[in-house]
Write a structure and sequence with these properties.
By secondary structure, the protein is of the alpha/beta class. It has helices spanning about 25-40, 45-60, 70-95, 140-145, 155-175, 175-185, 190-215, 225-235, 235-245, 260-270, and strands spanning about 10-15, 105-110, 110-115, 120, 125-130, 135. It has a 4-stranded mixed beta sheet, covered by helices on one side.
């Protein structure tokens, strides 16, 4: 993949080497004391201010990251910028009556982090949080992708990033609403099936991105598409279940089989059609 030396996104924040603040500690404890005294003196309810101090302490960085994995940061920033350009143009040209596309933030972290969706750790892999419209990535996942999942290559990594950005596109276009309705039903099997549809749709959209990124930036080199398809294949639910437990339980699928993930990425890549993603929620589940 051709990415070195190219324009980078301004929406990337690298917080590796930082750690969440300790609840109500240090300066926060002093602030709490001041708030309580002021509340007593001026006769107001202190809890809203106490909650604000607690939240600020939970999210405050304690140690600045310095020069860690600059190449990872550059790569992620370039891929995110390519996504921003492609999706802004596609949504403007193809979505009637839609509002202007606002790209997601992307936060590079290490080990664990506090997000708008709660606490998360590196073991979860890259993910998108709709609550704060941010993609979260611990770059150690890319080493896992290469070693544990046997999916090396920079375009395999770009596919992973594009898949997470695709969740933001789904969120921006209201495509997550069907699964939100199903989740409220409490039907576990229906929830899993809706999740599979959503994830395969994100794979399709990642393919759409690759189609237009190639047209816009000529990013692809020999073997890149094979890298992405291999990555999609290696992280299918059936493949992961066989690796972890030796057998497959289809009722527990949440992302789709290896075959499905490869198919829908290829379909998005082939067509480049944003509107084609809607079929993931109209096809019968067994036909996905």
């Amino acid at each position: 993949m051709r990415w070195k030396g190219r324009q980078q996104s301004e929406n990337v924040e690298d917080v590796r080497g930082m750690r969440p603040g300790v609840k109500m500690a240090g300066g926060g404890g002093f602030a709490v004391l001041i708030i309580i005294i002021l509340a007593m003196f001026f006769n107001f309810e202190p809890q809203p201010l106490l909650d604000a101090v607690e939240q600020a302490g939970a999210n405050a960085p304690q140690a600045q990251a310095s020069g860690v994995d600059d190449e990872y940061r550059e790569f992620i920033s370039v891929v995110l910028r390519d996504n921003e350009v492609v999706w802004e143009k596609l949504i403007k040209d193809q979505v009637r009556g839609g509002s202007a596309y606002r790209p997601p933030k992307l936060r590079i972290f290490s080990d664990q982090i506090t997000t708008g969706c709660g606490r998360a750790n590196a073991a979860m892999g890259p993910f998108y949080c709709p609550a704060d419209q941010t993609v979260y990535i611990d770059p150690t996942f890319f080493r896992e992708l290469k070693r544990r999942h046997r999916a090396p290559g920079d375009f395999a990594q770009a596919y992973v990033i594009a898949h997470e950005v695709a969740h933001h596109v789904q969120n921006s276009l209201g495509l997550m609403k069907p699964i939100e309705k199903v989740r409220r039903s409490g039907d576990k099997q229906a929830i899993n099936q809706a999740s599979v549809r959503l994830e395969l749709q994100a794979d399709y959209l990642a393919g759409v991105w690759a189609h237009h990124a190639q047209k816009e930036f000529q990013i692809l080199e020999k073997g890149d598409i094979a890298e992405a398809m291999n990555a999609a294949n290696q992280i299918g639910d059936d493949t992961l279940q066989r690796m972890s437990q030796g057998f497959v339980i289809p009722e527990r699928f949440t992302h789709g089989t290896s075959k499905q993930r490869v198919f829908w990425f290829k379909e998005g890549l082939r067509t480049g059609d944003l509107g084609g993603c809607e079929q993931l929620f109209t096809l019968d589940y067994q036909d996905l």
